[in-house]
Amino acid sequence: MPDEDGHPSPDEMSLLTVLNALSDPLRYAVVSELLREPAGTARTCASFNLPVSKSTTTHHFRILREAGLVRQVDRGNSRAATLRRADLDLRFPGLLGLIDADRRAGG
Questions:
Q1: CB 3.0–4.6 Å: which of 9, 42, 54, 91 could bond 80 by disulfide?
Q2: Cα distance between residue 42 and residue 23, in whole Å
């Protein structure tokens, strides 16, 4: 069962749910950008400058959070997202490496 903020534990993460979350180009770009950051870097949703409304941005981050790709914490009137590297590497070894290799290849 996800925690009170909607983050699933690693054993609750589903490959199908993760791949579905990554199938959207904007969400894939968010994960790819977070991979460029040092581990543990937290960024606000607005810092990604997604070309969509605030409510749609919130929706995209909810999908990423519920899939287990990011951990979000409230920061007053915004939320900061951190890539769940260790959890993803534990549950789906090699997945982040594939995304990073694709990013480096210009994908």
A1: 42
A2: 22
